[in-house]
Amino acid sequence: MMLSSLNYYSEDRIGLRLALLAAPRIEAGTNFHDEVAKIKTICNPYIGCPKSIHNLRGFLENNPVVQPMETSVLDIIVDTTAQGRLLFQTLIAVILDAHSNNRTWNGGFGSDDIRVIKPWESKAMFIMVLKEPVEFDVRARPLQAMANDLRKVGEILISHYKIGGRLPAHFEEFEELLRRMERESVGDKCDMEHLSYHPAIMPSSARRNFLNKLKRTLEPRGSLTDHSVMVQKPTVYDPDDWTNIVKKSEARCTILLDVYWHNNLNQDPAFEYESNAGGLVKFMRNTLEHGRDICGLEQYLAKTFSRFLPSIMLDLLRSKAMGEPGAKEAWKAYKDSKSDE
User: Fold this and answer.
1) What is the pTM of this model?
2) Domain boundary residue among 201, 232, 252?
3) Which of 23, 138, 313, 339 sits at 20 to 30 Å (Cα–Cα) from 235?
4) Residue 74 lies in a domain
């Protein structure tokens, strides 16, 4: 049995070491009443008597993971709730913690094996997987088996984040990432850090603050002004460049055109938006700076340029640019904001 947690208030993964306790194994077929009694016994020395213990179905019935949200930019959008983000973050942490301690399920667990536990003393969440993972030799890491574990996370959870067939911002990319998880990604530290803090499972405010801080690295003499990641064409859907998407944006979202033309009609070329990734970072940040419905605008930008933020984050991590002055602070602040409401 594996038990793991992400603390709601701290960046530290308090309680993750519980994942390796030699706790009594809960056998398949144990009735829920007896199961709860055993779980309380396991948890009590470490987090006290839990406030609640749910199987996954019970947790989802009592804790909506997504919610419809009306904005002035988009009629109705689907947004994650704080509990929805924490559920995904915590289950991924369970899997990665098991991998870091040379254990894997090879995808051999299901929704019926998951228990969600909440303590009284904090807003933390703990997850138990009621199947024992298999220990492996660190010299022969079974990367495909580890990839299968992460694929299984997507298979179990993604469908619960849909309303009317629609997913929250960045979830299409997140679903694709989990579905196509390969051994090369599992073995890459940057890829796993990116997965743990994917924009899909982070609050809108965290994504917004990241863009704001990242934009500062693109000022004259900024640490990323001429970095290869920022001067490349961004990953978007338009065959040409992101500026065409803005020019073709819906009339109801005039702020995009207002912000774009305000800069590009300026007489000073230094203020023009370039069609590269850096130009898009500046544009998105300025749009959020000057708009009124900030949350609605952030969601609109996340939908319009849905591939951009996940891809630029991964590129910055892989190129080590996330360690540069300014970018390092932006990334840390972003990660620290994972539990923001």
Assistant:
1) 0.90
2) 201
3) 339
4) yes
Q: What is the dihedral of CA 166, 169, 173, 179, to 10 degrees?
A: -50
Kindly report, residue by residue over 9-48, the tens digit of the pLDDT. Answer: 333 344 444 544 434 467 777 788 888 888 888 888 878 8
Out of 201, 219, 252, a domain closes at 201
Provide the domain limits for residue 285.
205-336
Tell me the two tokens of residue 57.
């179905």
Backbone CA torsion sign across 163, 237, 300, 311:
positive
* DSSP states of 170-220: THHHHHHHHHT--HHHHT-HHHHHHHHT-GGGS-HHHHHHHHHHHHHTTST
Residues 64 and 212 in one domain: no
Place of tokens 């948890």: 43
What is the distance between the alpha carbons of residues 233 and 249, in angstroms, rounded to a whole number?
Answer: 19
Same domain as 247, residue 177:
no
